[in-house]
Amino acid sequence: MFTLTAKVRGAKESPVTLRKSGFIPAVYYGKKDKSTPIAINTLSFKKVWKGAGQSSIITLETDHGGIDSLLYEVQVDAITGEPIHADFYAVDKNTEIYANVPFEFVGVSPAVKDLGGVLVKVLHEIEVKSLPKDLPHNITVDISSLSALDSHIALGDIKLPNGVTVSEKTTEIIVLVSTPREEVIDEPIVPVDLTAIEVEKKGKKEEEGIVEGVEEATPIKSDKKSDK
Predict the structure, then answer these.
(1) Residue 22 in contact with residue 45, Cβ under 8 Å?
(2) Is 191 among the domain residues?
(3) Which DSSP letter does residue 155 get?
(4) Strands of 64-172, DSSP E
(5) Coil, helix or strand for 223?
(6) pLDDT digits over 87-102, tens only?
(7) How many of the other CB atoms lie within 10 Å of CB of 204?
(8) One domain, residues 23 and 75
């Protein structure tokens, strides 16, 4: 379970001032909770964000009590990459929720290690439905069963945590091992021997009775009549 202390902030409080004082401006809302602006210690937020991600329940400790929520969105600075604002979605512990949960790939595939296959991760996360208390941080996929080329693991091959369901088809492929492609080696380009071509041209001209550099004589017609 992840917990963050959140203090309700006034609408007129400057986000810039909050950040300079070591807090990140945030907001939480839900079906039964109106949008409420809050402020959270930046260092604490970054630590929880790294551990919980967007697929684990985070309890916001406020003056109004604990609020179970999911980290819905985080805005980061385009230059520094530091978080500058966060949205939390408040959930009802008795109502099932939908969330995207990442796959965690463990083990070593014999087809990759021994046969030179290429591991292809088709899916990196999956949308699940569960009660907030049953929502997993990730779903483990053991790839050690991939022992042959072109073998795969489908959604129906893994065991989901108790209380968790998915809407995707059980035939949906999560990960596979593809056959490595043979490397195509380009044949070297043989340079053209221009000298040989020139010699061949000369030979053809000589066969036709034409010597290069000498023009063929044009017969001259005589106007003188021959004596009878």
Answers:
(1) no
(2) no
(3) G
(4) 65-76, 83-90, 97-106, 118-121, 125-130, 139-142, 152-154, 165-166
(5) coil
(6) 999 999 899 999 999 9
(7) 9
(8) yes
Q: pLDDT digit string (tens) for 169-181?
A: 999 999 999 998 7
User: Mean pLDDT across the stretch 95-113?
Assistant: 95
List, in sequence order, every residue forming a beta bridge with 74; answer none if it has no partner. Answer: 86
**Bridge partners (DSSP) listed for residue 36:** 28
The domain of 10 spans 2-92
- Residue 144 DSSP one-character state: G
Q: List pLDDT tens digits, range 28-79.
A: 999 888 999 999 999 999 999 999 998 899 999 998 889 999 999 999 999 9
Beta strands in the chain, from DSSP E residues, in sequence order:
2-8, 23-29, 36-41, 58-62, 65-76, 83-90, 97-106, 118-121, 125-130, 139-142, 152-154, 165-166, 173-178
Given a cut of 50, is residue 134 above it in pLDDT? yes
| 81 part of a folded domain | yes
Residue 195's pLDDT is what? 64
**Res 64: pLDDT:** 81
Q: What is the amino acid identity at position 110?
A: P
Domain stops at, among 63, 92, 121: 92
Q: What is the pTM of this model?
A: 0.69
Q: How many CA atoms lie within 13 A of 75 on its CB side?
A: 9
DSSP 8-state secondary structure symbol assigned to residue 146: -
Whether residue 108 sits in one domain with residue 88? no
